Amino acid sequence: MSTATRTIPARIFVVDDEPNMGRIMVKLLEAEGHEAASFTSPGEALDAIRQTPPDVVVTDLKMPGMTGVELMGQVKQVDESIEVIVMTAYGTIDNAIEAIKVGAYDYVLKPFNTDDLLLTIGKAAERKRLREVNRSLTQELGETGRPPAMIGGSMAMTELRELIKKVAPADSAVLITGESGTGKELVARTIHMLSPRRAGRFVAINCGSIPPSLLESELFGHEKGAFTDAREQRTGKIEWADGGTLFLDELGEMPLNVQTQLLRVLQERVLTRVGGNEEIPVNIRLLAATNRDLGKMLRNGEFRQDLYYRLNVIRIEIPPLRRRQDDIRELAEHFIAKHCQNLGRPPVRLTPSARHAIEIYRWPGNVRELENIIERTLVLLERDEIRPEDLPAEIISPSPGEHTPATPGGFTVNAEYRIAKEHFERIYFAALLSRVRGSVTDAAKQSGMSRRNLYEKMERLNLDINQFKR
What we know:
With 470 residues, the chain is α/β, with parallel strands linked by helices. It folds into three domains: 3-137, Response regulator (Rossmann fold, 3-Layer(aba) Sandwich), CATH 3.40.50.2300; 153-319, Rossmann fold (3-Layer(aba) Sandwich); 323-468, Helicase, Ruva Protein, domain 3 (Orthogonal Bundle). It contains 20 helices and 14 strands. The chain has helices spanning 3-6, 19-31, 42-51, 68-78, 93-101, 114-141, 155-167, 184-193, 212-220, 237-240, 256-268, 294-299, 305-311, 328-343, 352-360, 366-380, 393-396, 417-435, 440-447, 451-460, and strands at residues 11-15, 35-39, 56-60, 83-89, 106-110, 174-177, 202-206, 245-249, 270-271, 280-281, 285-290, 314-317, 349-350, 385-386. The protein has a five-stranded parallel beta sheet with strand order 2-1-3-4-5, with helices on both faces. A five-stranded parallel beta sheet has the order 7-8-11-6-12. Strands 9-10 form a two-stranded antiparallel ribbon. The protein starts with a helix and ends in a 10-residue tail after the last helix. Residues 1-7, 142-146 and 400-415 have low confidence and may be disordered.
């Protein structure tokens, strides 16, 4: 068994007009832990590729109706990152070399040597995976090296970033807690991207979105015939994460019997597929997240104590957005820029009064709710600025309990003094500048401040005086 292909499971499609050849290759690939399927016609293969793109396509060079080179051109149009390997007889090796010149990863000779074939496919799968990792890192980290999940300059976010930097290099399990919508998966992805495992896969699975009866198979995989609908062998998510990071979201929804098997993976670093007997070695780092009280579940017998202690090696708590009021403006502006680009529309700004409305709202759905509302507002917006009346009714006219306790001026009083003070100052100076139409001289006179001090105050509060001139 090839170690190279065992540790990098991939989805492989085989295209050969000889049915027996396809069946033999599928068996070889599945024995190595890959997902594999064979097709006897290029057209049938293309239909499957468009529906579920594979990592690697292994195709015969000479087939009726379409050559392997022509098929490769069609495959690259679907997804340029798919690696293509051509199979050829010795007499047509020149054609195989030409195929490499126009984009094939490599070629194998018929009759092929099994070890050489599996090694070539394994290298092709590894190449595709590394391309995906590099593209993901480039998109996520950008030029600043800071993932978009880490937006915000508040004390809470600064401390969170520092904690992530400390825990990322370790290989210990991490338990991420926080309310729904706070960004637990983004924190997990950031840990993965900053870890030594960043070249490996990040595999995420939501335990609450999969029926309990199917979760075991989804995680651990199954053998052919393990149950009624198990028509073929399937690799589970844990095997897919081998060499990388497995992220289990909504961990509190995991049934006890699955918890027992997960504990074995953490303790012994092996798993057994459903319906199988073989112990398969796995090397993963586990990150888990929950918005439930696992301590309470532990006391109620709903969560295994030994698994809890295994997972709770390092704990990261993500603060809700209402405890990060300093970050709301920066997050909103980030989402405005992001969705303006996605929608292909010119930049849009938040008016001071709209900004004030979103800053005092409680945000029970946290960052996810903020982004959804920004996107919804931009879709419906017909001007180049967001005003209070453009926001949903629950933002500008919240029902009782939607806002935190407030003073008659409308600013919250359950925040730290520093945050409440800055919030009041922003409201005060925004109202003042609006009243004097952006006149620094008049604003300084009415506030009893010097022009210089007023400018410094505006800079600290991120208030643009030009916004108030009209």
